[in-house]
Amino acid sequence: MKRPKGIIFDLGDTVLSEERFNPLRGTSKILESAINPHNLTPIEIQAKADEIYQGLRSSREDLFVEFSEQNFHRLLYETLGIILNVSYPEVERQFWRASTDFKPTKGVVEVLKYLKINEIKTGILSNTMFSGSVLGEELTRHGLLHYFSFVIASSDYGFRKPSPRIFDVGIKKMNLEPADIWFVGDTLEYDVRGAIES
Q1: Local confidence band at 59 (pLDDT 50, 70, 90 cut-offs)
Q2: What distance lies between CA 144 and its chain's CA centroid?
Q3: Residue 34 contacts residue 84 (beta carbons within 8 Å)
Q4: What pTM does this model have?
Q5: Among positive and negative, which fits the CA dihedral 122, 72, 87, 46?
């Protein structure tokens, strides 16, 4: 097998393992600094969020299009008449920090060190409604961002894996021939299929 010149990694459950995702905690955090004229509870708001998300799900899964977390929050809170006192990028950050908990996947640090020593380029390509800047901040918290030359979040580009369009962005950022790039991920449908078709 030919040695790669670059490797693009999935993020969730590949580079970082998700220990917890509790959207109710994220919603509660956002409400701390919001004007809530109808006194809606975090549970009521989360029920509306779940309803909106279900409406988006088929587009995400069938058409491989992506929506941003910032636009999701804008739609949610403006629909409910809740006024936020911080910017939507800050809402996204607060929600992420309160609702998620990640740790580096076992063995990933050793792999990344090996790749860096051997001058094999690395990048991140993640299916997520969260922005690349939020993912970068999470990688920084774990001391991993410096290993990657780029972080691509599907929400920043409008397409999700397995769409070849999002893989094409990663290939371009690698500045290598597709045959010289490996893709490492945890799902056959999104990661393997998309990489093969790119």
Answers
A1: confident
A2: 15
A3: yes
A4: 0.92
A5: negative
